[in-house]
């Protein structure tokens, strides 16, 4: 009986999410008008199963822009330097890594030819970590790498500050000591192959999805495998055409607002989910404002997080965050790169001002909340982020839907939970949120794994 009512409420059409939502709302309204019998049928429908059925009947191919014209790819045989330069030039956050010889045609399953998805920010963090190991070794060999504020005394050519590099005793030449020149000079870093090191800085495995897959499938995939993005493959030419990112998933969830089964979870306060209980204060990762900038980037690399909260030393108040994507600033600003060991995190954040581009982007996103997902969101293209001094924060009385909206506007994947003194209480990630809407809702976490394994 329950399944029959559910099928009646959730039609089998291939309409888009917004049209499906309207159709379901009308079906619920009609059934509620059938008197006590209709009301009893509605009460008998479990919200968990209803939401699962709703998501399972939203094909991805109904999302506008799901088939883009193509994406930037990195080849496993390329060097780290080539890959960083490519993604930086194309202004993208990441790319799939293709493990096929240049000029060769792919044969067999698509998953056999891709290593995974790599992240530009993580590749930069990896290089920074390697610099700390290789620079001292280079100095021992007689290659004196100039650094920090001492270089500011030399003339600038617009691309980098010139410093002296001793190749051998009594011999010297001029070099531009920015990120790019150091990456080139320390050859065993820049010349390392992407394919050999992809596991060190990849977002996750290459798990393709197809236009005929459902929204339920992608939610399960993002939550089960902690993916930042899942590649959308066109079955006709067997090529990656776009991505469903966690950001896109958040926007798709917001479009469900008004569906009773969605609202029953989304309108709960955060304190009802016990997010803080999963992150004891002693286990929270953070960096104090007066620490060197390099410490913040090292923290991002060590703990494999996309953002680290920055606290005020005297009060432990949250005053900002440094994100993995902020590492690309070191590619643009040679002064910050050279001074990364001495410049404080607070000074670094202070240089990050609110840009007119971000204000425009924020206004557009706020206006479009709940509307169709744009094609731009379905790519890994770079975008303007809020300044580092303005991290996404939540308090325990915020609803889950409030938090989703904040994350969508900021294009962020995490919100920092704070108390009334703005002291850090916990972290809520987009994955934490997606899990709440992935079946079975309301089950204990130790029971989720088996269901995901079976469903996938």
SSE inventory with pairings:
Blueprint (H helix, E strand, L loop, with lengths): L1 H8 L7 H16 L2 H10 L2 H10 L17 E2 L4 H11 L3 E5 L15 E6 H21 L21 E7 L2 E6 L2 H7 L1 H4 L3 H8 E3 L10 H10 L4 E6 L4 E7 H9 L5 H7 L20 E2 L4 H11 L3 E5 L6 E6 L5 H4 L1 H5 L6 H6 L5 H13 L24 E2 L5 H11 L3 E5 L5 E6 H8 L7 H11 L1
Parallel strand pairs: 1-2, 9-10, 12-13
Antiparallel strand pairs: 2-3, 3-6, 4-5, 7-8, 10-11, 13-14
Helix pairs in contact: 4-12, 6-13, 10-19, 11-18, 17-18
Strand content: 5-15%
Choose one word for the global shape: flat
CATH level 1 name of the domain at 251-455 = Alpha Beta
Mean pLDDT: 78
Count of separate DSSP helical elements: 20
The low-pLDDT segments are: 146-175, 440-456
- Would you identify the CATH architecture of the domain at 251-455? Roll
Which structural class do you get from the secondary structure elements? alpha/beta
Question: How would a textbook summarize the main sheet?
Answer: 4 strands, mixed
Q: Gap between N and C termini, in Å?
A: 27 Å
The CATH H-level homologous superfamily of the domain at 251-455: CBS-domain
Largest sheet strand order: 1-2-3-6
* Helix share bin: 40-55%
Q: Which fold name corresponds to the CATH topology of the domain at 251-455?
A: CBS-domain
Radius of gyration: 25 Å
- Tally of strands: 14
Organism: Riccia fluitans
InterPro entries: AMPK_gamma/SDS23_families (IPR050511), CBS_dom (IPR000644), CBS_dom_sf (IPR046342)
Pfam family, one: CBS
Protein name: CBS domain-containing protein
């Amino acid at each position: 009986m329950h399944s029959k009512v559910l099928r009646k409420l959730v039609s089998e059409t291939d309409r888009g999410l917004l049209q499906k939502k309207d159709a379901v709302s009308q079906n619920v309204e009609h059934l509620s008008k059938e008197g006590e019998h209709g009301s009893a049928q509605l009460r008998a429908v479990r919200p968990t199963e209803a939401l699962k059925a709703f998501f399972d009947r939203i094909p991805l191919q109904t999302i506008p822009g799901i088939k883009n014209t193509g994406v930037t790819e990195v080849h496993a045989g390329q060097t780290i330097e080539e890959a960083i330069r490519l993604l930086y030039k194309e202004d993208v956050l990441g790319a799939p890594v293709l493990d096929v010889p240049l000029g060769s045609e792919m044969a067999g399953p698509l998953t056999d030819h891709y290593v995974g998805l790599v992240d530009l920010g993580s590749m930069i963090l990896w290089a920074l970590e390697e610099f700390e190991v290789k620079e001292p070794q280079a100095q021992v060999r007689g290659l004196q790498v100039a650094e920090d504020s001492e270089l500011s005394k030399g003339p600038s050519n617009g691309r980098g500050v010139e410093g002296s590099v001793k190749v051998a005793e009594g011999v010297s030449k001029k070099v531009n000591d920015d990120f790019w020149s150091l990456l080139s000079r320390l050859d065993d870093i820049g010349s390392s192959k992407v394919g050999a090191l992809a596991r060190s800085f990849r977002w996750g495995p290459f798990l393709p999805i197809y236009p005929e897959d459902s929204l339920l499938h992608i939610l399960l995939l993002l939550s089960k495998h902690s993916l930042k993005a899942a590649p959308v493959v066109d079955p006709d030419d067997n090529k990656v055409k776009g991505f469903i990112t966690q950001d896109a998933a958040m926007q798709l969830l917001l479009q469900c607002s008004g569906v009773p089964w969605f609202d029953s979870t989304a309108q709960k306060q955060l304190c009802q989910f016990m997010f803080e209980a999963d992150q004891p204060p002693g286990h929270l990762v953070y960096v104090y404002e007066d620490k060197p900038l390099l410490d913040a980037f090292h923290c991002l690399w060590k703990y494999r997080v996309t953002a680290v909260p920055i606290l005020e030393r005297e009060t432990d108040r949250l005053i900002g965050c440094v994100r993995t994507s902020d590492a690309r600033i070191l590619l643009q600003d040679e002064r910050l790169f050279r001074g990364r060991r001495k410049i404080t995190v607070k000074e670094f954040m202070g240089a990050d001002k609110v840009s007119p581009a971000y204000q425009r982007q924020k206004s557009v996103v706020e206006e479009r909340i709940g509307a169709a997902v744009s094609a731009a969101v379905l790519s890994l293209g770079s975008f303007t982020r809020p300044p580092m001094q303005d991290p996404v924060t939540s308090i325990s009385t915020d609803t889950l839907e409030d938090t989703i909206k904040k994350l969508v506007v900021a294009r962020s994947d995490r919100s920092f939970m704070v108390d009334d003194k703005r002291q850090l209480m916990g972290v809520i990630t987009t994955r934490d949120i997606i899990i709440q809407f992935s079946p079975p809702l309301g089950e204990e976490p130790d029971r989720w794994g088996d269901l995901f394994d079976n469903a996938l």
